[in-house]
Amino acid sequence: MSKIQEHFIAAARGLVGTPWHDQERKPGLGLDCWGVIVCALEAVGLHAPDTDQGYKRLHRWKLLQPALEERFEALPPDWSYAQPGDVALWVFSDKIPHAAVVSAVGPHRPHIIHATYNDGKTFESALPDEGYGNLRSLWRLKPHELDRYQWHQNSSSQPYS
Length: 161
Description:
Elements: H1 3-13, E1 25-26, E2 30-31, H2 33-43, H3 60-69, E3 72-75, E4 87-91, E5 97-104, E6 111-116, E7 121-126, H4 129-132, E8 135-141, H5 143-155
Antiparallel strand pairs: 1-2, 3-8, 4-5, 4-8, 5-6, 6-7
């Protein structure tokens, strides 16, 4: 795992316990599932792919996937490809899209960091049953982002964009 992936996961873990709040981006005060991704990326100095539109009222995939393409590359939608530091998008059985940071993988289900309405907070857990079979897309930081981050860490303490 690269340093940026380690730092991205650590930043997401730092958000654990933040209350769930739809379309919010305030660590410690309120986040939704996409806010976890945005705030964790910003914490490691990456410009976060976000949307300025109220995605709650729109088909989320049409907004979230293009936002991810800015910093991430798409992988086959199969959990066997998942690695720590990836971002996963899936659909719950009630057709609600959801996003999470993959924090660990192993012989069983991946562990993820995410925020849900039902749980009312940001937390880390094994992937729920509903997420396992309904993976829509899996995303990994692009190689040039990994290289730029490593170079930046060696040459400066300022965030880059």
